[in-house]
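Project standup — Tuesday

K.O.: blocked on the structure for the chain from last sprint. Re-posting the sequence here as requested.
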Amino acid sequence: MTYASEAHRWAAQLDELCSRIAPRFGRIEPRRRARAYLQGLLAPLERKNGWHLAEAAGDMTPDGVQDFLSRMHWDAEAVRDDLRTYVVEHRGDPDALLVLDETGFVKKGDKSAGVKRQYSGTAGRIENCQIGVFLAYASRHGHALIDRALYLPQTWAFDAARRAEAGVPEEIGFATKPKLGQAMLKQAFEAGVPCAWVVSDSLYGADHQIRRLDRGARARLCAGSDLRSAARVQARGRLA
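H.V.: unblocked you, prediction finished:
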């Protein structure tokens, strides 16, 4: 059961978070939209698409939500940094894990940036999909995503017309999924995110540059079949 005091506390925490990221939006309208969007994502809605989020915000159509996501200018990387700082403040622990993994987003068309027929671990087969690489933070206090990157296949990276139609920024080039993961880990380590382990599947664990990064950060990397060993070692450390 959710009590009124808990609801007020959640609302206050959302206000705190929105105040933190407000400077990343140049005008009041995108700030208002950002809060409504976050509130919709946290709400118990059946689906989290444009129509449902618009209805939760009291809008008659999804135009405002779509405008916020596609046309309003705001610093997404700075918001990412704010999020990472917020997570460390509330969930930080020196024994925490950084979890590096990818997920697929199945699509029906061919207009979404990076979409193609490729293997999706989420679906367990080759699908027409986008692939996102994600970095999560997990500790005894909770877990949260702290970074993300969209994988842009070579068929997209070197197709200027297709890039322009989808609005892919010029500075975004082709990078392998391990390279994307390496960049996210490097940023987390440079920001001083406390952790004892980096866990991933074998695609990322086999990358020698990622292994060099974790040694420099004094965090242990476990991939694939090593994950059970990491969990046992961490459990023993908590019990000691």
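K.O.: great, moving the ticket to review. The first strand starts at residue 97 and ends at 106. Residues 236-240 have pLDDT under 50 and may be disordered.
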